[in-house]
Amino acid sequence: MEGVASIWSVLFYKCPLEVLEGRILERAKNSGRSDDNLESLHKRFGTFERETMPIIHKLQRLAEPSPYWSVVDIAGDQSLDDVWEATQTTLNGLIQ
């Protein structure tokens, strides 16, 4: 079917706004990006909350009874190395 993809998992990175703020401000010191500021972050975070979170919640409800796919929560407030390790572990578990 055109325009439809099969999935077996969704990775959802949970990270509090305060952690995101700190990371963006740290990145802004060297990134040169005009959108690395709190105003842009709050706008993006608001859009995420309004438009993406309802989809995540629906996927979580649909995945609960399903043996075929899942929504995996990954703590995004860990160190970046730990987030990457959790991502690798999750993906390795899905493809084995």
Computed Rg = 16 Å
Give the helix/strand class.
alpha+beta
| Number of E strands | 2
Fraction in helix: 55-70%
Secondary structure: elements and pairs:
Elements: E1 9-14, H1 17-31, H2 38-63, E2 70-75, H3 80-95
Parallel strand pairs: 1-2
Provide a descriptive summary of the structure in words.
With 96 residues, the protein is an alpha+beta fold. The chain has helices spanning 17-31, 38-63, 80-95, and strands spanning 9-14, 70-75. The two termini are 27 Å apart.
Structure in a nutshell:
The protein has 96 residues and is an alpha+beta fold.
Comma- or semicolon-separated keywords:
alpha+beta, single chain, globular, two-stranded parallel ribbon, 96 residues, 59% helix
